[in-house]
Amino acid sequence: MLQLAGKRLVQMALIMLTVSILLFLSFEADIGNLATKILGQYSTADQRMLWLEKNGYNEPLVMRYLQWAWNAMRGDFGESLQFATPVSKLLKDHLLNTAILGGLVFAITVSISLVLGVLSGIAEGSPRDRSITVLAVVTTSIPEFASATILVAIFVFWLDWLPGTSPFTNGLNWADANQLVLPVMVLVIYNFGYYTRMTRASMAEVMTSQYVRTAILKGLPYKRVIMRHALRNALIAPFTVMILQLNYLLSGVIVTEVFFSYKGFGKLLYQAATFNDIYVIEACAMVAVFIAVFSQFVSDIGYTLLNPRIRLS
Amino acid sequence: MTDTTAEETSTPEASSAGGRFLKAFALLSESRIGMLGLAIVVFWVTMAVIVDLLPLQDPLAQTRGAVNMAMMSEDKTGVMHWMGTDSKGRDILSRLLHGSRIVLFWSTIATVVAYSLGMLMGVTAGYRGGWWDEVISYIGNVLLAFPQIVLLLVILSAFGPTSTFGLWLKSTLGLDKTIVSGALIVVAITFSTAPQVARIVRGIVLDLKTRDYIAAAEVRGERPLRIMLVELLPNARGPLIVDACLRLGYVIITIALLGFLSLGLPPPDPDWGKMISEGREWGYFGLNMMLWPALAISSLVLGLNLLADGLREISLRD
Questions:
Q1: Each residue's pLDDT tens digit, B169-187
Q2: CB neighbours of residue B299 within 10 Å
Q3: Which of A81, B106, B203, B309 is the most exposed place for a label (fewest CB within 10 A)?
Q4: pTM of the model
Q5: Which residue of chain A comes nearest to B258, CA vs CA?
Q6: How far apart are alpha carbons B156 and A270 in whole angstroms?
């Protein structure tokens, strides 16, 4: 167990290292271009030379990378060009907002899809199963920005129940909580289908296994077989997949945040990408990759802990 | 017999391409969902092909005094705008249908490129094993560690149309701006999609390479490249066709998404994603501009997903 965790940690570190080198090379290898981006395209050649000299950009590439990586590990990603604030402070605020949105979405999506997946998987091929499956296919076909458009048309322009953007200009507070309804709804709609299908597949597989059949034939009440015997084993695979899918959830969160002007991590990254705010892009990409790799680590370890067949061998 | 195995493995009645297609169609017609998906996909493909022949407005023509018109309204010159007009007075129906061509064109290219590279990576990793596998899987793991949109944003902001590299493509090579943007989108999508394809192909190949016909080919002394391309890939096609349908749907979403984030194809060409973001700027008055492309893209992707579902159903049956 510890050995596995150690091995995964090393792999994780290696991937982070590779990603950091790739990011550094793509954004900071060409220093002439970098100076133009930072000082603006109307700066003179002399100004750029001076700036590069002053900020240590004339050092060899390897030295600069090591310096950059060292700073990044301490959480110092430099200063945002667009907002003139330290990147770490921007990241902290925006990540918190995204964590709130993402956490809500994750909790709701998981609850809905576990219920639907189990309902569908215990009666494979039934009309209920088929309609849940079709519903799942339909909702996963509608990309976030399209479902957001349709929901805005219904709930904002037609019914006039909800606000169409979620800027939280007064900070996060309960009075404005209705601003969260649409973004959460959009993300839940797009994501629950996949989770439901995973749960369904796993449940259907468990239902055909020997021990469930034995339990039913033994005369145990059906409900009890499902709750005590089938569910526990059926939920291992979906659980790990759901954590693995945080990566995809994060992609969707970015789009939704941009659509609803929600001040989260995705909006920050998008603004940085359109403004060419390279230090922010680098920091955001590193954080996103870290979240993705770390969730994979948690998922691997979680699977091992939950699955007795692997844990005990 | 040193000839190919493609003919050996296929059944006689399905040897011609047309025969095989008819057989697949007959099988698919048993799945109602699959047929519905096929119908939607065929509708959009037909639109993309024949859109020039339809009696539509010019998708780029702006009519004076006819901006943000509602559905089914006539402008002063007596032209009917079935889906209304956008904020620049352009006919939305015409833009929508012309958009299908752009969406399908670029998404097909991106899918084909990503798929070819991914299959090559996957079959090499799976068949060759050893160092090949280690290196290819590692590259895949690094690229898949990025959430997809983050990877696209990073690639397009470091090497996109407005970067030094993009400007170089435009000025030095003298390429058209639409071509440059499109090509960069294809490259970005390839980076994010090929590793996923490679992972699937690798899994299938690991299973296939233990089969007898591969051993037979090895004994015959066929070269590894030939074994990979002629023996392994054609026999992996079943699950890959289903996956390709789903993948094309994702690529369509991704291209529209890039358009929505204004990182896609340059204006004024109609691109569904960009049409949505243009409408969004107008709030209530842009509703018409946003809703139609949103429905169009959802229906196209839904069609592909239903088709994939139908194909999966029939492939599980036999």
A1: 888 877 788 888 888 999 9
A2: 17
A3: B203
A4: 0.87
A5: A255
A6: 11
What is the CB neighbour count within 10 angstroms for residue A127? Answer: 8
| C-beta atoms surrounding B250 within 10 Å | 21
Distance CA A89, CA A281 (A): 14
Which of A145, A152, A274, A280 should one mutate to test binding to chain B, selecting the residue with the greatest count of B CBs within 10 A?
A145
Domain ranges of chain B: 12-55+82-317
CATH architecture of B12-55+82-317: Orthogonal Bundle (1.10)
B140-175: buried (b, 16+ CB within 10 Å) or exposed (e) per residue? bbbbbbbbbbbbbbbbbbbbbbebebbeebbeeeee
Asked if the Cβ–Cβ distance from A146 to B298 is below 8 Å, we say yes
Judged by CB atoms closer than 8 Å, whether chains meet at A251 and B159 is answered as no
Supply the ipTM of this predicted assembly: 0.86
Contact B153 A273 (CB under 8 A): yes
Chain B: residue whose CA lies nearest to A16: B142
